[in-house]
User: Fold this.
Amino acid sequence: MTLLPALPSGVIETVEMHTGGEPVRIVVGGWPEVPGATLLDKRRHATAEQDHLRRFLMHEPRGHYDMYGVLPVTPDHPDAHLAVLFMHNAGWSTMCGHAVIALGRWAVDQGMVSTDGDTARVNIQCPCGLVPADVALSGPDAGQVTFESVPAFAAALDQSIDLPHIGDVALDVGYGGAFYAILAASQLGLDVRESPVRDLVDGAVGVTEAVKAQCPPSHPEEPDLSFLYGTILTDGGSGQGAASRNVCVFADRQVDRSPTGSGVTARVALAHARGEIATGDTAVFESLTGARFTGRVGRRHRVGDIDAVTVEVTGRAHYAGTARFTLEADDPLASGFLLR
Assistant:
């Protein structure tokens, strides 16, 4: 029987939100301090020393296979209102757009920023960098959140990989705070509107494993960001004129219910690199739940020797409740488990 260490405060408290159906479990009490001079240092410490608490909140019986969480920590960026670590079923991410959208609304409601005017600016330090989010406070867009991504870029265009039972497949690899392999589901004989989710997951995981083995991405400036987070299967559309549906499968076969904020960032950066979308242009992306994010090409940047752009992503998040999670000393399943 494997037991967890006692919770430092006896209880972990959370605010429960969702963005397009994708959960955002925000820790608001009970988690011990995460030491580290920088946010990436804190991510390393949480991975090495506090991962049992991630499993406690993300895994069953308190979470589920597709649970997603956010841990607010002390920022080290001088312009940040808050800093966060992102957690999922397999570990700790470097960026999460759907969570940033929820955090923007939550930070405003917590009184962390000024609410004078029609919008409130919340500067959120993520492991990939500072991400400003503007929260609409009035009018028909009240509650809507738009964040500006870290510089995003095309890591590979028309990259060929070899898939078992399929053969050569061409895909793109884009960075939007995390790296994604992106391709039309039709290349795998699938359809993001018609195929069973299980088949989409199997197909995406096969691509992820192949890219990791054959052409793993590398960030030009930060080794901690040099990993493939997942694969996004699309309907082949551009998101201009009509919404483009996609499904993102990340971490350990985890399925994003939202259009994926960092994934939308990567898709827009790839389209811009191909010359398919100009600065200031907007595209619309849709998830399996029908939730929609818009992505707009923002400012030009350079990341190392790579051309990059920021992307403005807009969406909505909603509250689902609050929770207080406790641990009994003799609970044989305290360390959590996952069933699919």
Observations:
- The CA atoms of residues 58 and 67 lie 5 Å apart.
- The longest helix spans residues 197-214.
